[in-house]
Amino acid sequence: MKNITFYKMTGSGNDFILIDDMKKVLDKKQFPFFAHKLCRRTWSVGADGLIILRPSDKKADFKWYFYNADGSEAEMCGNGGRCAARLAHLLSITGQKLSFETKAGIIQAEVEQNLVKLQLPPPTDLDMNIKLTIENSSYTVHFINTGVPHTIFLVKDLEKAPVLSLGRKIRFHSYFQPAGTNVDFVKVLSENGLEIRTYERGVEGETLACGTGAVASAIVAYKLGLVASPVKIKVRSGEILEVFFSPTLKEVFLKGEVRLVCKGKICEEALK
Ligand SMILES: N[C@@H](CCC[C@H](N)C(=O)O)C(=O)O
């Protein structure tokens, strides 16, 4: 790992370490360990997740390996996917229109300078109006899988929403086991506008943005008759993600800004 080049990128405030391993020099078995060590803030590079680009076995431009900060592997990540697409284009691994292989299927992407649009897999497992009892209080939530599992909780006051405490209780609630869930607290702003805060599985805390969470929130709000496509979603960083979809939800897109922050070499001590 020593002397390996990494890139730090942020997708609307969701930050990632990216490594080009198209030549397959790294040991795949160590990817979870690298994620766990490198994503530690203060002690290492620090990020919400680690993304490793490798050649695709199927008919895509590349295959990615995505790990959360705790070293767990996730099937998909909307903001990470937008970062990976932009990096692959910047490194001339792909053209402006590209595809990449994930555990959630092949994702299509389009890069236009710092704006990246992804087509996500059609959502699955929609489960509306779930009644949860947590410490003698009842909550009505909604579940959807937009590549990864998300639970949506509609709130009126997002500033006062107990994202960490209630988010963690919902994330680990028996109803969602064994996979667990990400939890999005959602406020409806208008027919085409939402604001969200997300508790992320695998980061085990609030992140500044979540792409699959933005998509999940927009689709659940659409199913409840609260919004129509396109939906602009304000995330915790203050940035706006755009989600648009066909009425049947067979085509779902996520668009937003991506920044390349820096490029560097991993030092041995970053893994200590
Ligand atoms: N931040 C991501 C989602 C990353 C995966 C998630 N933490 C999980 O384990 O399900 C996004 O932008 O979609």
Automatic annotation (TrEMBL):
It catalyses: (2S,6S)-2,6-diaminopimelate = meso-2,6-diaminopimelate. GO terms for molecular function: diaminopimelate epimerase activity. Gene3D superfamilies: Diaminopimelate Epimerase, Chain A, domain 1. Pathway: Amino-acid biosynthesis; L-lysine biosynthesis via DAP pathway; DL-2,6-diaminopimelate from LL-2,6-diaminopimelate: step 1/1. Substrate binds at residues 14, 68, 78-79, 182, 200-201, 211-212. Belongs to the diaminopimelate epimerase family. This is Diaminopimelate epimerase. It comes from Desulfofervidus auxilii.
